Amino acid sequence: MGWKNLGEKPVVETPWFRLNRADVELPGGRRVDHYVLRLPPVVLAAVLDDADRVLLLWRHRFIPGSYGWELPSGIADPAEDLAAAAAREALKESGWEPVAPRPLIRLESASGLTDSVNHVYWTRQAIHRGDPVAGFEAERIEWVPLDHAPGLITDGMVPSAVTATVLMLLHRHRPADG
After folding, report:
1. pTM of this structure
2. Where are the alpha helices (DSSP H) in the chain?
3. pLDDT digits over 5-18, tens only?
4. What is the spatial distance between Cα 92 and Cα 136, in angstroms, rounded to a whole number?
5. Nearest by Cα to 75 from 59, 67, 86, 61
6. Which of 8, 107, 146, 170 has the most CB atoms less than 10 A away?
7. 82: number of CA atoms within 13 Å, CB side?
8. CA distances from 156 to 12, 152, 164, 173 (A)
9. Residue 115 burial class via C-beta count within 10 angstroms: exposed 0-12, middle 13-18, buried 19 and up
10. Which pLDDT score, from 0 to 100, does residue 120 have?
11. Residue 68's pLDDT band (boundaries 50, 70, 90)?
């Protein structure tokens, strides 16, 4: 019953993504062109402290024109260790280096359009290494109590679907150390 990808041809290729046109066969045999956005893995770091606060960045995203709280995140090289990539991005964007991040959740945020996978790692340990190298990534870097997450999401202060999902997961089921 599934859709069949009979092949793809590149339309646009950049260091950040590829846009392909796929020849797709639908159930029943009808064929259609479908555009597919191919992206490298995205990694996020959910860093918690002993007071159940989470490290968040206040960011402006120019594409949707929105401001909001987000977890540190970035693109991983497909050959890179994903936990190491999440730690690298958190350090670069926040100045905090996560210690021994562990997998939390894997999310596909727009699977009808892209193969983008968000790999979220978490830890309760981080070392402050100083100012972030990529200080332009965030206007503010704060430790926000997890108990504030539902209100921030409801008030539209967390527009990122992945960050909102992770914050609600952490708020409801705080991962155990170990």
Report:
1. 0.89
2. 82-94, 149-154, 161-172
3. 999 999 999 988 99
4. 10
5. 86
6. 170
7. 18
8. 33, 6, 10, 22
9. middle
10. 98
11. very high
Q: What are phi and psi of 77, to 5 degrees?
A: -70, 135
* Angstrom distance (rounded) from CA 82 to CA 69: 22
Report the relative pairing of strands 42-47 and 118-123 from DSSP bridges: parallel
- Strands (DSSP E) along 1-139, which ranges? 4-13, 18-25, 31-38, 42-47, 53-61, 66-70, 73-75, 96-98, 102-107, 118-123, 126-128
User: What's the pLDDT tens digit per position in 93-147?
Assistant: 999 999 999 999 999 988 888 888 999 999 999 999 999 998 888 899 999 999 9
Distance CA 105, CA 112 (A): 20
Q: Are 101 and 73 in contact (CB under 8 A)?
A: no
Rounded Cα distance, 32 and 30, in Å: 7
Tell me the residue type at 123: T
Cα(120)–Cα(106) distance, integer angstroms? 6
Backbone angles phi, psi at 16, to 5 degrees: -100, -25
Secondary structure (3-state) at 175: coil
Residue 89 to residue 45: CA distance in whole angstroms: 8
